[in-house]
Structure prediction request, 606 residues.
Amino acid sequence: MSSISDRQPGRSGHLVIIGGAEDREGAKVILSRFIELAGGPSAKIVVLTAASTAQKELWEIYERAFRDLGARDYSHLKISNREQASDPRHADRILNADGVFMTGGDQKRLCAVIGGTLIDSAMHRIFRERGACIAGTSAGASAMSEHMLATSTADDLLPEKGETSVSAGLGFLQRAVIDQHFSQRRRLGRLLEIVAQNPYLLGVGIDEDTALVVENRAGFEVIGKGTVTLLDGRQMTSNFLEVEQSQRLELINVKLHLLPAGGRYFLHGGARSQVPAALQEAIAAVTSVSTVAAPEYSAPEKA
Amino acid sequence: MSSISDRQPGRSGHLVIIGGAEDREGAKVILSRFIELAGGPSAKIVVLTAASTAQKELWEIYERAFRDLGARDYSHLKISNREQASDPRHADRILNADGVFMTGGDQKRLCAVIGGTLIDSAMHRIFRERGACIAGTSAGASAMSEHMLATSTADDLLPEKGETSVSAGLGFLQRAVIDQHFSQRRRLGRLLEIVAQNPYLLGVGIDEDTALVVENRAGFEVIGKGTVTLLDGRQMTSNFLEVEQSQRLELINVKLHLLPAGGRYFLHGGARSQVPAALQEAIAAVTSVSTVAAPEYSAPEKA
Prediction:
């Protein structure tokens, strides 16, 4: 694995966390922002389709979208198993990238294939050391948190104990859990259950064609068409430990924030300098990404 | 209008606020509680169907249910216009009742027909002066608040400005707005818009086959099958005054409480003596019913 490119040292990294179904045909506001944050038309973009079993088809969609947006250096990294994900030649492509885009599919597949591999490590390194832009949509968005919403049988606004479970994600966000297609698939109940289980994790529900653009330790912006829903259970009281499986949960004092596209929430200065106190902790939870202990596997010696 | 019966002086009144579709065939937990709170099998029950245009059909449903539950003195008060609602003979029947049950239909119709009439006044008098039980389901539940959710085009979890409006209700609850069929019809968005418009009003969303049993100035209980959702916007920040019609609302710091059936929330003592602080104000908002300034129209002299 070659050393990291130092073309843009010290630039602050961004995460673009997309709720799925982002516009790929029209103005492509979200994909356009991703390219801009990666460095513009000449940025090296790698599309990672490992969450899906239809990798070729997904690549074709993004190939067309990125071409339409004037990007000049984008390529597909097709990874189907952990052996490929641990191949230093593949990791090198990530290490040289300015932006990595993780498509949808199944977040459990994505993490099973790349979690803890050289690919994973390389993404963390370019994000932290060189300020690359890491984007994920749908399953690719869910996978960005350390504790990842893995499975759920919930189909309601109301959480029931035992419907929803987490597993290990890629760890870009340490103190938040991402959910996607949020309003469209009415996922409030399942995200509330995650918060009931883990009141120290912020629930982040992102609508379709909507993205949270996170600037490390500074703040975030909501772009696209929908809303980002934050569920803050840190001062919540619940009966989670007392009730049986499948019982409805009692949750008292969950703070709910609805942040529609167009909002900018930065802790210090910026376009919106006065953030309500109740939101400041939530912003800190979403943006405390640089302390992530990335899985720093050593690259094998090159032959 | 005759003087109020004093059979049960000083008994504390109850409101039974039902989210619609309560069980009328099986164990009938909610209807059974209504009869119990009205005084048991010998209580005088009046069924008010004025919210509906199918008054006879609704009466037949409740006639059968109350008979099955062993009630012995129940009758139908069919009111179709304000003239009937202002007839002292009809008001007398309310004044002599121990329990009044308002069926579903359309809450705007209900209030247009009985709001401010002798019937309305009589219901408030027996509730306040003699501790009668006043129940309402669906439209009959919505009508119980002073500010009543009247119309909405919202069909989503996310509130947009201008989708939802209030009008004048019957005023049993002064500091809360009731919504019904809450989870089943996914009405979070419309209740959030009401709270955005009126942060001093508590949003109360009641599920189907679920009831909030309110004891005046003391506390409440959730019975039935579902959950009661409370939305407390008193410390909320929103962009309601700044955005155009149909724009998505930004809401920061709405307190969300989910209270499933089985929960008892009383401010002083009772089965659950320690209520979390964050819920105490909400309980006060729901239970401050006795200060209601009922429309005390004078009855016309009898001929």
